[in-house]
């Protein structure tokens, strides 16, 4: 996503306790108010941001992801990024040594956090962390839980091709727009066949799938900011909240009301 020029409250995530060969995963406690954001930055290690409560949006140069409660986002080393806090958030940042990471080193992803994974993170975040050998066992199991965590389609990539970028930016401005790809082709000066190829080559999915992913990401942002389900459904072009909830459940396995509620 393009970098924003607005100036909300700045949030500085400190302290930063880096990982090491002795301690390959460190956990840092974080709490941030709504409408704040970090500066653009990167780390020499991998980072996993786990939202215990509240919702965050993470942006890189060409994509953005929404991170609801009890989900996490993985950020590989050296990826320039910015985090925006959409609602008051209590979260954990895990710094992960490159050699230990079970997650890809070339792509961000949002993932589910199982109750077991959450408990393991909290155990390592304790002011009095467990002693060996218990700490090592917790760490090994946490790394395995990270590897098995289910990825979620809460990211939105943008293309390089100017014609496809024009289409995508227009949909971002108006997610409820229901024009066919053929109509969009007329607007942006490319054939429908060319746009179909560009969607596959640059974004890895078809037009309908990208538009649905946009709507899901936009819905997550609106719900996190406190909008009612009926209002969200209307803004996204759905006839009623039930139709929107059914689409959301097909994508994530649970309705919005449950998906955005912190796990007990």
From TrEMBL:
Top-level taxon in the UniProt lineage: Bacteria
Region (Disordered): 1-22
Any one GO MF annotation of this record: sequence-specific DNA binding
Key words, A-Z: DNA-binding, Repressor, Transcription, Transcription regulation
Claim: Secreted is one of the keywords in the record: no
Gene3D superfamilies associated with the record: Homeodomain-like (1.10.10.60), Jelly Rolls (2.60.120.10)
All copies of domain HTH araC/xylS-type, residue ranges: 162-262
Entry protein name: HTH-type transcriptional regulator NimR
Pfam families found in the cross-reference section: Cupin_2, HTH_18
The keyword DNA-binding belongs to this UniProt entry's keyword annotation: yes
